[in-house]
Write a structure and sequence with these properties.
Radius of gyration: 19 Å
Largest sheet: 9 strands, antiparallel
Order of helices and strands: HHEEEEEEEEHEEH
CATH class of the largest domain: Mainly Beta
CATH topology of the largest domain: Immunoglobulin-like
CATH superfamily of the largest domain: Superoxide dismutase, copper/zinc binding domain
Strand content: 25-35%
Number of domains: 2
Length: about 200
C-alpha cells in the first residue's frame, strides 16, 4: 500500500471511531463513554429581562437518549414559581442558545420541519406546579443526535398556559399564546452523573 493510501485509510478509520456501526454517522466521544447513550443538562435561570414582581424560576432540565433511534427522555426539576398559584406553565425548546438579551434572544420555537404548533419537537405542553415546583418526567420526539440535535438550543418556561394550537389565531399556531418568558437555559452535553443521582 502506498504511503498516501495508507494515510487516507488511517484518517477514515480514526475519523469513524465514534461512528454508528449501522449508519456510519459520527457521534461525539461521549457516545462510547456512556455505552451508546448521550446525556445533556440545561441549568434554568430567570430571564434577565423580567418585569419587577415576576417569579424567579431556577432548576434543571435533564436529558438522556440511548442511540439515535431511542426516545429522548427528560426530567424537569424547577422551583421558584408562586406556591399559591397552580397556574399551568408552558415549556418549549427554542431555536437559539443565545442568552445575550435574556430569554428574548432564544428566538422562536425550534421548528426544523416547518410545522404548526404544537407539533414542533420540543413542544412539551403544560406543567402544573405544586408548591411552586415542577417535578416531571416525559419522553419527547426531539433528539440529541445528528443534524436535528437540540444540543446548543434553549429551553424556555413561559408565564402562561399553552393553548396547544387551539386558540384560533396565528399566535396559537406559532407558540401557543404562552406569553412572556420567565426563565431559560442552554442545552449542553453532560456526564451521566446528574441523571443517575
Amino acid at each position: 500500500m502506498k504511503p498516501l493510501q495508507h494515510s487516507l485509510l488511517l484518517v477514515v478509520l480514526l475519523g469513524c471511531q465514534f461512528c454508528s456501526p449501522t449508519s456510519g454517522e459520527a457521534f461525539p466521544p461521549e457516545y462510547q463513554t456512556f455505552s451508546g447513550s448521550l446525556y445533556a443538562s440545561c441549568r434554568m435561570r430567570p430571564n434577565t429581562q423580567l418585569p419587577p414582581g415576576s417569579p424567579k424560576v431556577y432548576g434543571q432540565v435533564l436529558f438522556k437518549q440511548t442511540g439515535p433511534e431511542g426516545k429522548l427522555s427528560l426530567r424537569f426539576k424547577l422551583h421558584g414559581l408562586p406556591a399559591s398559584d397552580p397556574q399551568p406553565r408552558a415549556i418549549h425548546i427554542h431555536q437559539y442558545g443565545d442568552l445575550s438579551k435574556g430569554c428574548t434572544s432564544t428566538g422562536g420555537h425550534y421548528n426544523p420541519f416547518g410545522t404548526n404548533h404544537p407539533y414542533h419537537p420540543g413542544d412539551f405542553g403544560n406543567f402544573v406546579p405544586r408548591n411552586g415546583k415542577i417535578r416531571r418526567s416525559l419522553d419527547s420526539e426531539a433528539t440529541l443526535f445528528g443534524g436535528l440535535s437540540v444540543l446548543g438550543r434553549a429551553v424556555v418556561i413561559h408565564e402562561k398556559e399553552d393553548d396547544l394550537g387551539r386558540g384560533g389565531d396565528a399566535g396559537s399556531l406559532l407558540h401557543g399564546n404562552a406569553g412572556g418568558r420567565l426563565a431559560c437555559c442552554v442545552i449542553g452535553l453532560s456526564s451521566s452523573e446528574q441523571w443517575n443521582s
